[in-house]
Automatic annotation (TrEMBL):
The protein's name: Xylose transport system permease protein XylH
Keyword Membrane: yes
Organism: Actinomadura parmotrematis
Stretches the record annotates as Disordered: 1-31
Pfam families in UniProt: BPD_transp_2
Main function: Part of the binding-protein-dependent transport system for D-xylose. Probably responsible for the translocation of the substrate across the membrane.
Ranges annotated as spanning the membrane: 64-84, 96-116, 121-140, 146-167, 174-194, 214-235, 256-274, 280-297, 325-347, 359-378, 385-403, 409-428
Protein location: Cell membrane
Residue ranges with Low complexity bias: 13-30
Length: 439
């Protein structure tokens, strides 16, 4: 049987186009239907074996995800616990969970900017301005603390809007715009604080209570663990039901139960540790809610997909009809708002707003946390969970070395080495993905 030039010969024994055999339709329509199914989703029907296979393929392809930072965090905890048995004590872990919140919130906003492959160098100064604003309004002018907090966060968002407008509309590079903002807002912070340079907050006021409040009832921590576990299972289960209704491969019930059990073990273990000291910290509760909510926005909403699209390929996003300028402006507004929130928690931690708030290494640690946690400096890949994981790594190093009496100079060098390692892993991961055609 002859074939036309350029067309492959029909395999022997092949069924005619459109015929149906024991395995179902084999014609063009049937093949098209099969091609619509993402092969990566098929592993969900193979249970544990399928996920092990997919895990190996992702590692070979350079898709490491949060694996390096989780492994690194475990190693850090084991090393410091072997050096000092107080490291994993309930008191130290509880203090650590509160210490990560201020810079962690700033890092959450930084993640949105990094997803575009840009940088926000003014986040630290913005946090300092917001702390100064809330202190002046609440202490010096007697404003209601809730209203003062709202205004302070609005100021942070406004400063972020200024950065975004110059970047997206005028075309000034984000590095230059935010570097100018770092200097200008630092001066604004000093101006707002006045000659004294420090304003003490009321120890019993709302701002101070942000980091000094603990839910000592045992049910609080365990209740949060239970709610989180149940919510995770419910969302996963109903998501599976929708997939089944749409004819898309979904996770098995066994897979869901294993995932839920793993989350429950971690959640209840954390709740147990916190209850051994003062209970569930309000600051940690707020931070966890922020991380979960922003991750939902990034992964489950149209806006979040647009952010990833612009960060992945700006020209393709523009041709797809995405308002690139609006997305660029919005991420800087978000970064400014979260920087302001971080400044409030930083002021709450020491019950004062001063010239040092948001300065020193605050910005560097916020950026480092996002990168160490797994957000790519090259844009298009990351999650707000990076802020949580990265801050855990950084604060664990700081806490462990403090217990050992190691100087700040050594702490900075070690943190810098960890940051460099994270960037190297990210670069090698991207190179591997390009080599395997996964980008």
């Amino acid at each position: 049987m002859s074939t036309s030039a350029g067309e492959p010969p029909e395999p022997q024994g092949a069924s005619p186009a459109g015929s149906t055999g024991p395995a179902g339709p084999t014609g063009p329509a049937g093949l098209a239907k099969e091609a619509q199914v993402d092969p990566r989703l098929l592993v969900r029907e193979q249970g544990l074996k399928g996920y092990l296979t997919q895990f190996k393929q992702r590692i070979r392809g350079g898709e490491l995800g949060s694996l390096p930072v989780i492994v690194g965090l475990i190693v850090i905890w084991l090393v410091f616990q072997s050096l000092n048995s107080q490291f994993l004590s309930a008191q130290n872990l509880s203090n650590l969970s509160v210490d990560i919140v201020a810079t962690g919130l700033i890092s959450v906003g930084i993640v949105f900017v990094l997803l575009l492959g840009e940088i926000d160098l003014a986040a630290g100064s913005v946090s300092g301005v917001s702390a100064a604003v809330v202190a002046v309004l609440n202490v010096n002018h007697g404003w209601n603390p809730v209203l003062a907090i709202i205004v302070a966060i609005a100021v942070g968002a406004l400063l972020g809007l200024i950065h975004g407008l110059f970047f997206a509309k005028v075309g000034v590079p984000a590095f230059v715009v935010t570097l100018a903002g770092l200097l200008a807002w630092n001066g604004l912070q000093l101006r707002i604080l006045g000659a004294n340079g420090t304003i003490n907050l009321d120890n019993n006021g709302l701002v101070s209570k942000l980091t000094n409040t603990y839910f000592s009832q045992v049910i609080a921590a365990y209740g949060l663990a239970l709610i989180g576990t149940v919510a995770f299972f419910a969302i996963s289960y109903f998501g599976n039901q929708r997939r089944k209704a749409a004819g898309v491969p979904s996770r098995t019930m066994g897979d869901l139960l294993v995932r839920t059990a793993g989350l429950a073990i971690v959640a209840f273990a954390v709740a147990y540790v916190l209850n051994q000291y003062k209970g569930l910290p309000l600051a940690l509760l707020i931070f966890l809610i922020v991380v979960v909510a922003t991750d939902f926005v990034q992964r489950r909403t149209t806006y979040g997909r647009k952010v990833f699209a612009v960060g992945g390929n700006i020209e393709a996003a523009r041709r797809a009809g995405i308002n690139v300028a609006l997305i660029r402006i919005s991420v800087f507004v978000i970064s400014g708002a979260f920087a302001a929130a971080g400044g409030l928690f930083a002021a709450s931690r020491i019950s004062s707003a001063s010239q040092a708030t948001g300065q020193s290494n605050t910005l560097l640690l916020a950026i480092a946390a996002a990168v160490i946690g797994g957000t790519s400096l090259f844009g298009g890949r990351g999650s707000t969970y990076s802020a949580l994981l990265g801050m855990l790594v950084i604060q664990s190093i700081t806490s462990g070395m403090a217990l050992q009496g190691v100087s700040n100079s050594i702490q900075f060098m070690v943190t810098g080495a960890v940051l460099l390692a994270a960037v190297v892993i990210d670069s090698l991961s991207r190179r591997t993905q390009k080599a395997t055609g996964r980008t």
